[in-house]
Design goal:
The complex is a heterodimer of chains A (about 500) and B (about 325).
Chain A: E1 5-14, E2 17-27, E3 31-36, H1 43-50, E4 58-63, E5 66-67, H2 73-78, E6 81-84, H3 96-100, H4 115-129, H5 144-157, E7 162-166, H6 174-189, E8 193-197, H7 201-207, E9 210-215, E10 218-224, H8 230-238, E11 256-265, E12 269-277, E13 281-285, H9 292-299, E14 307-312, E15 315-317, H10 322-327, E16 330-333, H11 337-341, H12 348-353, H13 357-360, H14 368-381, H15 398-410, E17 416-420, H16 428-443, E18 447-451, H17 455-461, E19 464-469, E20 472-478, H18 484-491
Chain B: H1 3-41, H2 48-73, H3 81-94, H4 111-135, H5 140-159, H6 169-176, E1 178-179, E2 182-183, H7 184-202, H8 204-214, H9 216-221, H10 226-252, H11 263-273, H12 285-304, H13 309-332
Antiparallel strand pairs in B: 1-2
Classes of the chains: A alpha/beta (about 500), B mainly alpha (about 325).
C-alpha cells in the first residue's frame, strides 16, 4: 500500500538563501510521525509547502501514490491534509462554532446560515474530542489554551486523512495536552497519519511511532522512535560537524559591563540574573517564547521590569525610553529587522543615519555631506554589498540588511551591544562577517549580550552561554563545558 | 555581429532610464503636459493675469496640502483642516473688524495681533488632535473627524452664527495686496512651500517624520520620540490651516462661519495626486505642490473652456484614483 504522504528532494529558497535544500519524508497510515529539528532546520518551510502556502522550487510530493502539487491551502485541504498551526488565527469576534465552520457554514433558509445546525454540529465535534468548550461562546472570551483546542477541533472537523500538528502544545497546559494526546491516539487507531512537530522531546517519546529529523534545511535521518534514545536523537538534531569556523578574537576582562539582578517581568520572564564583562560575548540560548527577547526589551527601555536591578559599568540604571538607553551607550539589534530594525520604505543611507541624526547633524539642518560620508564609511567597514546607498534598503539581501542594522548602531560608538538573533536568515558568508564584527567590537573592550537559536554560532563566538526555559534561566555554561547536546537538553 | 547585443543593451538601458524618469517624475510630466495642452486649447490660459489667477485660487488649498503632507507621511490623516480654517479665520477676524457687533472688546487690533491669534488657534487645534492621536492612540481618522465637527461648532458658537464682516484694510491687504507685483496670497503660498519643503527635506525633524511613518517601531528603537513627532505633525497642519483661514478671510474681506467646508478633501486630493503614500513614510513636499497646482490648473482650464463645474468634480475624482493606481504599480516595482 502506498504511503499516505511521500516527499522527496523538496527545495525552497528565499532571496538566494536556501530555507530548504532537501526535504524528505514518508508518512504511513495509522502512525504518529514526529518531525524534529532546531530553529531554522526548515520544518516550517516544509509544512508551508505541503499546505500550499509556498511554491516549491523543486522536488516531488505524492499523496496516496499520486503525484500532487498544491497551489493553495484550500487545495491541500481538499486532498485530505489539515494543519493545526502554531500561530493561532481565530476571528475573535465570532463564536467557536462560526470559527470551526468558517467558509463552509451549513446553509439555512433564504440563503442564510443555519446557526442552530452549525452550533449543534460544532458542539458534537467538541464533545466528541472531550473538550469542555461551549460552541456558542465568542472566541475572545476563551483562554489561549482553549483557543488552541478549538483550532485543533477545527482542523479535525475537516475529517482529513493527514493531520499536521505544528507545536500544538506550546500554548496549552498539562491537562489540555493529555486531552490532545488521547485524541492523537484515537486518530491513529482510525488509520490516519499524524505529523507531529515539537521541540519537546519527551512528548515525541510519549506519542510518536516514527521520527524524521531535518537539519540546516535538509533531511538528516529517520527511524522508529522505539529504536532511538534521547541522546542520539539530540545528536541527530544538532549534528556535529562544525560547518563554519568562528575565529575567536576577544578575551573577557574582569571589569563589569552589564549586570542584571533578579530581573522579573510577570508572564514574560522571572528572576533573571547575569553579569556580562567588558570584552565578553555573553550568549543566551533558548527556544522561541522562552522570554529571551523580552529581557532585552527591558534593558533597552522598550518595556519596564516589575522587579530587579540593572547596572551599567557598576552604576544602577533605569531606562524609560530607548533614547535614554542609547544615550548611555546601549545599542539593540532587534530580532526582526523588518518589523523593528529598518525603515524599509527609505534608502540605505537614511537607515544607516537613523539612530545618529543628532550626532551627525548637531544643528537642526541635516548635514548631508557628513551623512553621506558616514554612510560610505559604514558600507566599507562592514563590507555591505550595495549598488548606490540612495537605493531602497529593501533592495538588499537579508545579510546586507542586517549589516545595515549593525552599522547603524556602530555609528553611535556603543559600549554595550544587545544582539537578538543577529544572523537569522542570513547566508553563511554574511554570518561569518557579522561574527567577525561582533568579535572585533568585544576585543576592543565592548560588552556584548547575544541571543541566538543557532547553536553552532553560540558555541563558536560566546564566552559563556545562559540557557533559558519557560522564562527562567536554567543554567549558565562556560565556553569550555558547553556542548550542543547540553544546550538542547537544558532548553527543552 | 558583436555590435548587435551592445545596441540592444543601450536600448534596454535607455528604456530602463525612461521608465525610471516616468516613475520618479511622472507627476511633473503630467503637469507639464496639462499646461501645454491647455495653452493650445485656450490662448488666454498662459496670460499673466490668468497664471496669477490660478496661483491665487491654488494658494489656500496648497497651504492646507503642505500641512497635510506632514501628517500623511507620519501615517496619519487630518480631516479637520477645513473646520480649523474657519475657526482660526473667524477668531482672527474678530480682532480686526470695524464692525461693532462682531469685534472683540477694544478692537480692531493691529493686524499682527489678529494674525498671531489666528495662528494660535490653529496651533491649539492641531495640538489637541495631536495629543489625542499620538498619546491616547485614537485613530487619526476618528480624532480628526471629531475635530472637524467640534471646530465647526465652535466657529458658529464664537460668532453667534453670523459672519465677521468689515475687516480692516490692513488685514484685507493680505488677501488682496501685491508684493513686487505678485499677489500677497501667492507670496505666502510660496513661502509656506519653501519652509515646509525645507523642514521636511533638509532637517532632522523631517527625517523623523519619514522614520515614524515608515516604521514607527524601528524609529522608537532608534531613540526617536514617536509620540512627539506625531504630535508636531498635527500642530504644523493646524497652524497651516490657521494661515489658510486668515488668507481666505482677508481675501473675501469678511470671515464666514461656513468657510472651508470640504476643503480637507481637496487638500488630501492634492497630496495623493502628488504621489505621497497614504500608508506613510513616502512622498515629497514638491509632490503636494504639484498636486495642488494640477487641481488648480485643471479647474481653471475647464472653466476657460466653458465646461461645467459638475464635470470638474468627475475629472478630479478620476484623477485621484488614477494617481493612486499608478502609485500602487510603482510600489509593486512594475
Amino acid at each position: 500500500m502506498a504511503a499516505l504522504l511521500k516527499v522527496e528532494g523538496l527545495t525552497k529558497s528565499f532571496g538566494g538563501v536556501a530555507a530548504l535544500r532537501d526535504g524528505r519524508f514518508e508518512l504511513e497510515a495509522g502512525t504518529v510521525h514526529a518531525l524534529c529539528g532546531g530553529n531554522g532546520a526548515g520544518k516550517s518551510t516544509f509544512l508551508s509547502i505541503l499546505m500550499g502556502i509556498y511554491r516549491r522550487d523543486a522536488g516531488k510530493i505524492w499523496r496516496n501514490g499520486r503525484e500532487v502539487e498544491f497551489g493553495s491551502p484550500a487545495e491541500a485541504l481538499a486532498s485530505g491534509i489539515a494543519i493545526i498551526e502554531q500561530e493561532l488565527s481565530p476571528i475573535p469576534q465570532m463564536t467557536v462554532a462560526e470559527n470551526i465552520f468558517l467558509g463552509r457554514e451549513p446553509p439555512g433558509r433564504f440563503g442564510g446560515v443555519d446557526f442552530r445546525k452549525m452550533n449543534a454540529a460544532a458542539q458534537a465535534i467538541l464533545d466528541d474530542l472531550g473538550f469542555a468548550i461551549p460552541a456558542s461562546r465568542h472566541m475572545y472570551s476563551l483562554s489561549v489554551a482553549q483557543a488552541q483546542l478549538v483550532e485543533i477541533a477545527k482542523a479535525l472537523s475537516h475529517d482529513a486523512e493527514v493531520i499536521f500538528m505544528d507545536e500544538p502544545t506550546s500554548a496549552i497546559g498539562q491537562r489540555e495536552a493529555h486531552q490532545l494526546f488521547a485524541v492523537v491516539q484515537r486518530l491513529r487507531a482510525q488509520g490516519r497519519g499524524i505529523v507531529y512537530v515539537s521541540h519537546r522531546l519527551s512528548e515525541i517519546f510519549d506519542i510518536a511511532d516514527r521520527y524524521t529529523v531535518f537539519r540546516d534545511g535538509a533531511y538528516a535521518g529517520s527511524g522508529l522512535v522505539a529504536e532511538v534514545d534521547r541522546a542520539s536523537l539530540i545528536h541527530l538534531i544538532v549534528g556535529r560537524e562544525m560547518s563554519e569556523e568562528y575565529a575567536k578574537i576577544n578575551t573577557p576582562t574582569d571589569e563589569e559591563g552589564l549586570s542584571v539582578a533578579g530581573l522579573t517581568s510577570p508572564g514574560k520572564f522571572d528572576d533573571i540574573s547575569f553579569t556580562v564583562h567588558k570584552g565578553e560575548i555573553f550568549g543566551i540560548y533558548g527556544l522561541m517564547g522562552s522570554g529571551r527577547s523580552e529581557i532585552f526589551d527591558c534593558l533597552f527601555g522598550l518595556d519596564r521590569p516589575s522587579k530587579g536591578e540593572v547596572k551599567l559599568f557598576g552604576k544602577p540604571v533605569s531606562f524609560a525610553a530607548p533614547a535614554q538607553a542609547i544615550a548611555a551607550g546601549v545599542a539593540l539589534v532587534t530580532e526582526d529587522r523588518k518589523l523593528s530594525g529598518l525603515n524599509l520604505s527609505d534608502s540605505i543611507r537614511r537607515n544607516i543615519s537613523m539612530a545618529s541624526l543628532r550626532a551627525l547633524s548637531p544643528n537642526f539642518v541635516i548635514d548631508t555631506a557628513r551623512e553621506a560620508k558616514a554612510s560610505r564609511e559604514t558600507v566599507e567597514r562592514f563590507n555591505i554589498q550595495i549598488g548606490r546607498d540612495v537605493d531602497p534598503v529593501s533592495s538588499l539581501s537579508g545579510g546586507n540588511q542586517q549589516k545595515v542594522v549593525l552599522g547603524k548602531w556602530f555609528w553611535r560608538n556603543p559600549r554595550v551591544l544587545l544582539l537578538d538573533e543577529p544572523t537569522r536568515g542570513v547566508d553563511v558568508g554574511a554570518k561569518r562577517e557579522i561574527s567577525r564584527i561582533v568579535g572585533t567590537f568585544a576585543a576592543a573592550g565592548g560588552t556584548v549580550a547575544m541571543i541566538s537559536s543557532e547553536i553552532d554560532e553560540l558555541l563558536g563566538v560566546a564566552d559563556r552561554i545562559m540557557v533559558m526555559r519557560d522564562g527562567r534561566s536554567v543554567e549558565t555554561l562556560d565556553r569550555s563545558q558547553a556542548t550542543a547536546e547540553k544546550l538542547v537538553h537544558l532548553s527543552v | 555581429m558583436s555590435e548587435q547585443p551592445s545596441i540592444k543593451g543601450h536600448q534596454a538601458a535607455a528604456s530602463e532610464i525612461a521608465k525610471q524618469v516616468v516613475r520618479e517624475y511622472g507627476i511633473y510630466l503630467a503637469f507639464i503636459i496639462l499646461v501645454v495642452a491647455l495653452s493650445f486649447a485656450n490662448k488666454y490660459f498662459l496670460t499673466q493675469s490668468n497664471i496669477s489667477n490660478v496661483l491665487l485660487q491654488t494658494s489656500i488649498n496648497g497651504v492646507l496640502a503642505f500641512g497635510m503632507t506632514f501628517v500623511i507621511i507620519t501615517g496619519g490623516i487630518d480631516l479637520s483642516v477645513g473646520s480649523v480654517l474657519a475657526l482660526a479665520g473667524i477668531v482672527s477676524a474678530s480682532f480686526a473688524t470695524a464692525s461693532p457687533q462682531a469685534t472683540v472688546p477694544g478692537g480692531p487690533y493691529p493686524v499682527f495681533v489678529a494674525l498671531l491669534v489666528g495662528l494660535l488657534v490653529g496651533v491649539a487645534s492641531g495640538g489637541i488632535i495631536g495629543a489625542i492621536v499620538a498619546r491616547f492612540k485614537v485613530p487619526a481618522f476618528v480624532a480628526t473627524l471629531g475635530m472637524l465637527s467640534a471646530a465647526r461648532g465652535l466657529t458658529l458658537i464664537y460668532a453667534g452664527g453670523r459672519p465677521v464682516p468689515a475687516l480692516t484694510p490692513q488685514y484685507r491687504w493680505i488677501g488682496n495686496g501685491n508684493l513686487f507685483g505678485v499677489p500677497a496670497p501667492v507670496v505666502i503660498f510660496a513661502a509656506a512651500f519653501l519652509i515646509s519643503w525645507f523642514v521636511l527635506a533638509r532637517t532632522r525633524f523631517g527625517r523623523y517624520i519619514y522614520a515614524v511613518g515608515g516604521n514607527a517601531r524601528a524609529a522608537k528603537t532608534s531613540g526617536i520620540s514617536v509620540v512627539g513627532i506625531r504630535l508636531a505633525a498635527y500642530v504644523i497642519s493646524g497652524a497651516l490651516a490657521g494661515v489658510a483661514g486668515m488668507l481666505l478671510a482677508a481675501r473675501t474681506g469678511s470671515a464666514l462661519t461656513q468657510a472651508g467646508i470640504g476643503y480637507e478633501l481637496d487638500a488630501i486630493a492634492a497630496v495623493v495626486i502628488g504621489g505621497i503614500s497614504l500608508s506613510g513614510g513616502i512622498g515629497r513636499m514638491t509632490g503636494a505642490l504639484i498636486g495642488a497646482l494640477i487641481i488648480g490648473v485643471m479647474n481653471n482650464g475647464l472653466d476657460l473652456m466653458g465646461i461645467e463645474s459638475y464635470y470638474q468634480q468627475v475629472l478630479k475624482g478620476m484623477l485621484i484614483v488614477g494617481a493612486v493606481m499608478l502609485d500602487q504599480r510603482r510600489n509593486r516595482g512594475d
